[in-house]
Amino acid sequence: MDVQAQARAQAQAQGVRSDEAVSRFVERFAAQLTEAGMQRMASRVFAQLLASDSGAMTSAELSEALQISPAAVSGAVAYLTQVTMVSREREPGSRRDRYVLHNELWYETFTRRDQVLTLFEKTLRDGVAGLGADSPAGVRMAETAEFFEFLQGEMAGMMDRWRAHRATLNLP
């Protein structure tokens, strides 16, 4: 093992933050988010915010950390704000904005998905009424509506179980 590899291993063992390790995490998680359908730059910006201790960074900080243009940061933040994964706040004592991850980000994201499922279910049920419940398309839509209704019920129970489980964890 070379000297740099030994130093990295020692820092990791001691729990010391490594810029190289952070960068590897950001790119790896961003690639997974992109593979799952999120825009590439939005994935990178989100992963960088997630990896920051404060969960908040300015455009200049994001640009420097990711080696991307301020315009790329702006586009990514516009998307992340639109899907309510981050919010824009004014940096105290400054005219600079900073971009902040929401508290309980994943819980909120999945809860909003539940609202989308409600909308889909209603639209599908309207479709069944228009197509006829006995038509092949009507039957298919009715089954899909039932699936979304089932998901909603399961999601609500799962979120309740998550809150109970989170309370048992030793997290701040």
Structural class by secondary-structure content? mainly alpha
Mass-distribution shape: elongated
On the 0 to 100 scale, the average pLDDT is: 86
- Fraction of residues in helix: over 70%
Share in β-strands: 5-15%
Can you tell me the residue ranges where pLDDT is under 50 for at least 5 consecutive residues? none
Helix segment tally: 7
- Please write the string of helix (H) and strand (E) elements: HHHEHHEEHH
Distance between the termini: 37 Å
Radius of gyration: 22 Å
Largest sheet features: 3 strands, antiparallel
Strand order of the largest sheet: 1-3-2
Q: How many DSSP-defined strands?
A: 3
Features of the shown structure:
single chain, three-stranded antiparallel beta sheet, mainly alpha, 8% strand, 172 residues, 3 strands
Describe the protein.
- The chain is mainly alpha-helical and 172 residues long.
- 70% of the residues lie in helices and 8% in strands.
- Strands 1-3-2 form a three-stranded antiparallel β-sheet.
- β2 and β3 form a beta hairpin.
- α3 (40-51) crosses α5 and α4 (59-66) crosses α5.
- It is elongated and about 65 Å long.
- The mean pLDDT is 86.
Task: Give me the secondary-structure topology.
Blueprint lengths: L2 H11 L5 H17 L4 H12 L4 E3 H8 L3 H13 L3 E5 L6 E5 L3 H27 L4 H33 L4
Antiparallel strand pairs: 1-3, 2-3
Helix pairs in contact: 2-3, 3-5, 4-5, 6-7
